[in-house]
Specification:
47% of the residues lie in helices and 19% in strands. It has two domains: 160 residues, Rossmann fold; 209 residues, Rossmann fold (3-Layer(aba) Sandwich). It is globular and about 70 Å long. By secondary structure, the protein is of the alpha/beta class. The two termini are 13 Å apart. Helix 3 links the parallel strand 4 and strand 5. The strands form three sheets. The chain has a nine-stranded mixed beta sheet, sandwiched between helices. The structure holds GDP-alpha-D-glucose. GDP-alpha-D-glucose binds next to strand 12, strand 13, helix 14 and helix 15. It comes from Fundidesulfovibrio magnetotacticus. Its EC number is 2.4.1.15. It holds the Pfam family Glyco_transf_20. Keywords: Glycosyltransferase, Transferase. It is an enzyme of class 2 (transferase).
Length: 485
């Protein structure tokens, strides 16, 4: 019943970036579908309903609308580019989004730069996205807004006289109230979020944090319901809030990891490392991912366990990110210093402790590393979910690997029973987890990996889309069915 209600509606997805890569090649604009779980999960839904994706293409120039139209024809759903000017990019994207919301929501106070001009730019840019939706939307469309760049849209759409049903999903954590309430524009942000019909968070912890901020700002607010989706009412308005842990297209990773080429490449990679225990990490270069902490823990392992020299190595893939922000440039220098410090100190002929890769690998290559690694290190200091953890599990059909997972990643909520859980700030604890994994009998590893894969098989990204949409259209609160009911 519920399914048919939401199936009937056209969907408009809104995200800061369109799910495409637009590049200038030989003086012309080229457009390609971006990678990533979100677009994989949403593209078929958009195609089925004749939907629309609204966002910033990242590049601009004459011919942009034409390449978007061409892409729309091929992809089966429409792209609606929102053009941002340099001032928007500086104040809204680099400023408010990346120098305020990103650090604050990940509980890093020091990088926060609470410039009032950033707030103005944020409002202005959000209004551009809202205007694009207002112009393209039909009254019975469902608008699904993604992430922290666009928290003001439901309110702005109402101010524009539009009464769409609007849902929001936050991909990053929602911080504890004592952190969130330091935001100078906290009331405006909370008021705007409460204008959505449904606000989705990665975990119940994020939902609880949000509800607590609402309660602190509006002591008269009330919570109703139990389970995955509850409602908060404040000043006469009811908003549904829920936990919807995002996932990956599990079967596509399983398929790609089963390809003959992938199996052969993983075998070759393993041979290159011999009998060594291979640790693996892959992250965007971001302070929330705990890369220096991971390197420090690895250095501690080598320092405290000389018998492991030559027997263990770390492959660290770091993907360039936000290179225009000074703090990210500083972090790159810090990571490179740490890597060369470890290698300089411990390397011997034939053994390089840290294999450092600073580029975006093609997906097939990333999968090869996932398949070959004995342990994946996810040491986030804060993370909405962490899809690397899930992709590693999906690629480990051989059931030989161990997932080492930060208790501060959203994925911990689902995976904590079967991963080696660590506090990323505790170098001794992380080093211990690595040593223990090296000594864990194969049968125990298999059991845990199988259990992790069972969780992922049931909760994949398609189930995530379904449960969010069902919750958005249902009148009831509580839990929303999974793929198998
Ligand atoms: C935000 C939230 C939340 C990494 N290296 C390469 C590569 N990757 C891909 C992985 C994965 C993605 O990047 C990273 O996803 P994460 O979830 O780990 O992190 P964020 O980018 O910070 O994402 C996060 C997510 O939104 C979804 O809601 O889980 O908490 O911060 O898919 O595969 N991909 C390729 N080459 C690489 O070298 N091709």
């Amino acid at each position: 019943m519920e399914q048919s209600t939401h199936d009937a509606r056209r969907l408009i997805v809104v995200s800061n970036r369109l799910p495409v890569r637009v590049t200038h090649e030989e003086g012309k604009l080229r457009i390609r579908q971006g990678a990533g779980g979100l677009v994989t999960a949403l593209a078929p839904v958009l195609r089925d309903r004749g939907g629309l994706w609204v966002g910033w293409p990242g590049a601009t120039g004459p011919g942009l609308n034409a390449v978007c139209r061409q892409f729309s024809k091929d992809a089966g759903y429409l792209l609606r580019p929102v053009e941002l000017d340099d001032a928007d990019v500086a104040g809204f994207y680099q400023g408010f989004s990346n120098e305020i919301v990103w650090p604050l929501f990940h509980e890093f106070m020091l990088p926060c730069n609470f410039l009032p001009t950033y707030w103005e730019a944020y409002r202005r840019a959000n209004a551009k996205f809202s205007a694009a939706v207002a112009a393209a939307g039909r009254p019975d469309d469902f608008i699904w807004v993604h992430d922290y760049h666009l928290m003001l849209m439901a309110k702005q759409l109402k101010e524009m006289g539009k009464s769409f049903r609007v849902g929001f999903f936050l991909h990053i954590p929602f911080p504890p109230a004592d952190i969130f309430l330091r935001l100078p524009w906290r009331r405006q942000v909370v008021d705007a979020l409460l204008e959505f019909d449904l606000v989705g968070f990665q975990t119940l912890k994020d939902r609880v944090n949000f509800a607590e901020s609402v309660r602190r700002l509006y002591p008269g607010s009330r919570r109703k319901g139990r389970g995955q989706v509850v409602s908060v009412s404040s000043r006469g308005r009811q908003t549904r809030i829920g936990g919807f842990p995002i996932s990956i297209d599990f079967q596509s990773f399983v398929r790609d990891a089963a390809r003959q080429e992938a199996v052969a490449a993983a075998r070759k990679l393993r041979e290159a490392f011999g009998n060594r225990f291979v640790l693996f990490g892959a992250d965007r270069l971001d302070y929330s991912k705990g890369i220096p902490e991971r390197l420090n823990a690895f250095a501690h392992l080598l320092e405290s366990s000389p018998e492991l020299h030559g027997k263990v190595c770390l492959i660290q893939v770091t993907v360039p990110s936000r290179e225009e922000v000074p703090m990210y440039r500083d972090m790159l220098a810090q990571v490179e210093r740490l890597v060369s410090g470890i290698n300089g100190r411990f390397a011997t002929p034939g053994w390089t402790p840290v294999n450092y890769i600073y580029r975006n690998l093609p997906r097939e290559e990333l999968i090869t590393y996932y398949m070959a690694a004995d342990m994946c290190l996810v040491t986030s200091l804060g993370d909405g979910m962490n899809l690397v953890a899930k992709e590693y599990v999906a690629c480990n059909a051989a059931l030989t690997g161990t997932l080492c997972l930060s208790e501060f990643a959203g994925a911990a909520m689902e995976f904590h029973r079967h991963a080696a859980m660590i506090n990323p700030f505790d170098v001794e604890g992380v080093a211990r987890a690595i040593r223990e994994a090296m000594d864990t009998p194969a049968a125990v590893r298999r059991r845990h990996m199988r259990a992790l894969r069972d969780i992922l098989r049931r909760f994949d990204v398609f189930q995530w889309v379904d449960s969010f949409l069902m919750a958005a259209f249902s009148k009831r609160l509580g839990d929303f069915p999974t793929k198998d009911g």
